[in-house]
Amino acid sequence: MTIQFVNTQAGLETLCQQLADSDWLAVDTEFHREKTYFPQLCLIQVANHDVIACVDPLAIEDLSPLMALFYSDDMTIVFHAARQDLELFFLMQNALPPKVFDTQLAATVLGYGDQIGYGNLVKQCLGIELDKGQARTDWRQRPLSDAQVEYAADDVRYLRQVYLQLLDELNRTGRVEWLSDDFAALTAIETYQEDPQQSWLRVKGAGRLKSQQLVILQELGAWREKRAIELDLPRRWILKDDVMLDLARFAPMTLEAMKKFVA
């Protein structure tokens, strides 16, 4: 099946017409966030029974025709490990697709393993070994090579088949409803709303601190989160976790004393 690389508004309109009658779409994204707080969307891969396409959001100004499909009440959007993809869509639309299916969660209830990776699941379900040669691609670069487009397309090419196989297994074993709460959580807005006061929970080693130290860590975490959002920089560029732990543990009282930890 020929892969469509869509990088014009007219091409996107044509693609959306081809996808419009689908009951489900397999979707994946490529993004970059090594130097930013917010992820930068670089590629959207989408497929149904008959079409595989890679959409270039760096070249297309208006993605609303595609978003209208993703946000349709009648369309199931299929992801593998959906959380980061949905975070992107939430940041773009301030809303989430109403109907989502996550093959990673489905694989868990069917006994394929907890948090199984896409490549491993494709191998178990379809007996296909995916190429990993483009795993370190910088998806911001243009033009993308044929090999990079093929690699990206594989993320939805086989996701279609895995989805249908897992859905069949869920129906045969009566486990479809087992996933209702998990899928509902994926499409709940509060899942993606950042609370700076809770950001300290991400800091590794926080459990070793005492109560007063945790209060300091919470305030440091809130400050770091707000600053990272303001500057659109990774949290660790603002203040590293180990420095935060030391500041919370030793609570330096002067600027000079604090400099010893952050230098």
Task: Characterize the structure shown.
- The protein has helices at residues 9-19, 64-70, 83-93, 103-109, 118-126, 146-173, 180-186, 211-231, 235-238, 241-250, 255-262, and strands at residues 3-6, 24-32, 40-47, 52-55, 76-79, 100-102.
- It is α/β, with parallel strands linked by helices.
- It folds into two domains: 3-191, Nucleotidyltransferase, domain 5; 196-262, DNA polymerase, domain 1, CATH 1.10.150.
- A six-stranded mixed sheet has the order 1-4-3-2-5-6, sandwiched between helices.
- A hairpin with a 4-residue loop joins β3 (40-47) and β4 (52-55).
- α5 crosses α6 and α8 packs antiparallel against α10.
- It is globular and about 65 Å long.
- The chain starts with a strand and ends with a helix.
- The mean pLDDT is 94.
Q: Which helices and strands occur, and which strands form pairs?
A:
Blueprint: E1 3-6, H1 9-19, E2 24-32, E3 40-47, E4 52-55, H2 64-70, E5 76-79, H3 83-93, E6 100-102, H4 103-109, H5 118-126, H6 146-173, H7 180-186, H8 211-231, H9 235-238, H10 241-250, H11 255-262
Parallel strand pairs: 1-4, 2-5, 5-6
Antiparallel strand pairs: 2-3, 3-4
Summarize the structure.
This protein is α/β, with parallel strands linked by helices and 263 residues long. It has helices at 9-19, 64-70, 83-93, 103-109, 118-126, 146-173, 180-186, 211-231, 235-238, 241-250, 255-262, and strands at 3-6, 24-32, 40-47, 52-55, 76-79, 100-102. A hairpin with a 4-residue loop joins strand 3 and strand 4.
